[in-house]
Specification:
- By secondary structure, this protein is mostly helical.
- It has a domain at 82-200.
- Helix content is 70%, strand content 0%.
- The protein has helices at residues 6-14, 59-73, 75-98, 101-116, 118-133, 137-167, 169-183, 186-200.
- The N and C termini lie far apart (82 Å).
- Keywords: Cell membrane, Membrane, Transmembrane, Transmembrane helix, Transport.
- Residues 1-16 have a biased composition (Polar residues).
- It comes from Xenorhabdus japonica.
């Protein structure tokens, strides 16, 4: 029989070919998986014996959204604040990096000796020598510049605020709990300050 005959065409389209089984009878059957829905994932049930396996309160997402909103809407304010911070930080960093390390070591060792005693001065001297010996002098001076910059702004902001709180008892009742809460998170504040300082650079 001629393959171009109407009967051959009919056999190919209707699936009467003996080599076609029921799974391949229809050309569109190979694409049925496109029309089938994905298998539903069963929901995870709460386990009383392991209640904190998954987050119950997405607090981190809330904080991230708030921070992103503040950054987007108050970026000009942050850019203005950045100018004096970056200027003072760069000044401290350049000054500490240009000083010869022996002079810096002697200065901070003598300062620690005068403020906290001979023991602390000796520990400071040995610690600074070890920092330089392990090749971390530049990183230490950058950290020192960050600390000095933060100290300067704390003095600039803290002194007027302390005087204001001493004269306004009602304001002191509001601000003091906030300051007490901030004192309990020094590591959190330090890590975020370092990250923002690196970002500013």
């Amino acid at each position: 029989m001629n393959n171009n005959s109407p009967q051959a065409v009919t056999d190919l389209t209707t699936g009467s070919d003996p080599w076609m089984d029921s799974a391949t009878a229809s050309p569109s059957s190979n694409y049925d998986w496109l029309n089938t829905s994905a298998t539903d994932i069963p929901p995870e049930h709460f386990n009383i014996m392991s209640p904190f396996q998954h987050k119950l309160i997405p607090f981190d997402s809330w904080v991230t959204n708030i921070v992103n909103w503040v950054v987007v809407h108050f970026r000009p304010v942050f850019q203005v604040i950045r100018v004096p911070v970056d200027f003072i930080l760069s000044g401290f960093e350049q000054f500490l990096m240009t000083l010869p390390p022996p002079i810096t070591i002697l200065f901070f060792a003598l300062l620690a000796w005068q403020l906290a005693g001979a023991g602390v001065g000796a520990v400071s001297l040995i610690s600074l020598i070890i920092i330089g010996a392990i090749g971390a002098w530049s990183e230490a001076m950058i950290t020192m510049a960050l600390v000095l910059t933060a100290l300067l702004f704390c003095i600039i902001i803290g002194l007027p605020l302390g005087i204001w709180l001493a004269r306004n008892e009602r304001l002191a009742k509001i601000v003091r709990p906030l300051l007490d809460a901030m004192q309990t998170t020094p590591r959190f504040c330090l890590s975020h300050s370092y990250r923002h300082a690196v970002w500013y650079r």
